[in-house]
Specification:
- The protein is of the alpha/beta class.
- 39% of the residues lie in helices and 11% in strands.
- It is built from 17 helices and 8 strands.
- The protein has a 6-stranded mixed β-sheet.
- Strand 1, helix 1 and strand 2 form a beta-alpha-beta unit.
- Helix 2 crosses helix 4.
- The radius of gyration is 19 Å and the shape is globular.
Length: 333
């Protein structure tokens, strides 16, 4: 697992509360390289690594759709951890992965991109023929987390947190869903690129592409026939191309709700202290009431819901949390 920590915002100037929570994650994971992606960076990323998807990306209704869609590409191209900006980190993520026998390595320990700084430099000219990062041999594994008390609900696998080794083929499924305009749950952001879509695809992956000995071959064949086939094929190393699909094994781990999402927005009795932007919001009281230490939680999300119905940032809701500061974020590579 590469020690990369991805977050995104429209610009590099973060609202103060978001900067505070982002800093908690950087301090809790000091050996992780932090990357703050802007809207401009995101489009460059799509153009460079999935140029065949760019037209569909540009035609998405608003920025919230694009912000949700592109985080799948963070995971596929680079791997590491993604977390929303209203996430506070409580324990080092490396210890979480170690519990699943996954070691964490600095990004420089992974091969495939010649210069990591260039990979994250927004001024680097996009190059659609650049190879996707490949990595030190080992299992391809992705981590998602449950939320709430009913795992059959569409919102129960949020896209507010995700982690992965690079080149895991699952991450191309959300992009293919957009590219083919397949909308199993509707046309709103959650259904097209957000948690509803992730729930649908995680269950599809577990059912169709990891359930038996031929699962890897089925996903390999599907992606080679998909609109993301060029991105997928470029992700295969020379060893991969010559190997059977079964040899390119991959898996998904769905973590329990206490691990990443000890609080969820449906807990109305905790909303007054745990929901960012609500009068009375008090993250310290929230953590005490939940007893996140006893739960063994690695992080907690305060569900700021900073997007408005038009797909832009809800300035009124953000100012209710705290006025913006002049902080200017950086990409640390």
């Amino acid at each position: 697992m590469p020690k990369l920590f991805h977050q995104s915002w429209s610009t590099t100037s973060l609202p103060a509360k978001f900067e505070q929570w982002s800093l908690s994650c950087r301090e809790m994971n000091p050996d992780f390289e932090w990357v703050l992606w802007t809207d401009e960076d995101n489009r460059r990323l799509v153009k460079k690594y999935a140029p065949q998807f760019l037209a569909k990306y540009d035609r998405l209704k608003s920025e919230i759709y694009r912000a949700d869609a592109v985080r799948n590409l963070y995971m596929f191209v680079f791997g590491g951890v993604y977390a929303d900006l209203d996430t506070e980190c409580l324990r080092p993520y490396g210890t979480l992965f170690a519990q699943h026998n996954i070691t964490s390595s600095s990004y420089s320990g992974f091969v495939g991109i010649q210069n990591a700084t260039d990979a994250f430099n927004p001024n680097t000219a996009p190059n659609s023929t650049s190879s996707i990062t490949s990595y030190i041999p080992g299992p391809r594994i992705t981590f998602l987390a449950h939320m709430g008390t009913d795992y059959s609900k569409k919102y129960s696998i949020p896209n507010a947190w995700m982690a992965s080794t690079p080149s895991h083929p699952f991450w191309l499924l959300p992009l293919d869903l957009v590219a083919t305009e397949n909308k199993p749950y509707g046309d709103w952001p959650e259904a097209v690129t957000g948690p509803d879509a992730l729930f649908y695809l995680a269950n599809r992956y577990l059912r169709d592409y990891s359930s038996d000995d031929d699962a890897e071959a089925r996903l390999d064949a599907f992606l080679k026939g998909s609109e993301l086939k060029d991105t997928y094929i470029r992700s295969l190393s020379e060893n991969d191309v010559g190997a059977s699909a079964r040899a390119r094994m991959h898996q998904m781990v769905l973590l329990g709700k206490e691990t990443i999402f000890p609080y969820w927005w449906g807990e109305k009795e905790l909303e007054s202290v745990c929901r960012a932007g609500v009068e009375g919001f008090d993250p310290e009281t929230c953590k005490d009431v939940l007893d996140v230490q006893a739960l063994g939680s690695w992080s907690i999300t305060y569900w700021s819901h900073s997007w408005n119905q038009e797909g832009g940032h809800d300035k009124g809701h953000l100012s209710a949390m705290e006025e913006k500061t002049g902080f200017s974020g950086k990409k640390h590579v």
